[in-house]
Amino acid sequence: MDALPPKERPRHRKMTTENIIWAAILDQRGLSRSLISYLFRVGENQIRALIKQVRPILEDLGHHPEPIHARLIDPSDLANYVMHATAADREGKATH
Fold this sequence. Notes:
Layout: H1 17-29, H2 33-40, H3 44-60, H4 75-90
């Protein structure tokens, strides 16, 4: 889709309901919205608007996850965090 000329690209990419919920959960966990928009391949304004709609619903339903203690700004930060968490899990250590 990125190979299309800008005028032929859809204005907003469609996200499934499940992906919108996951985006809101990742936002609750503390991932930057720029990283979330990168992961779901949508614009930051679109992800911000979707999170703004869904996050209050999750909170009303009692979903208050503990934030990730690492600062995850870009995909390499996320990859390093996942690698560390996976290794720590195999060794039986906590990742926080």
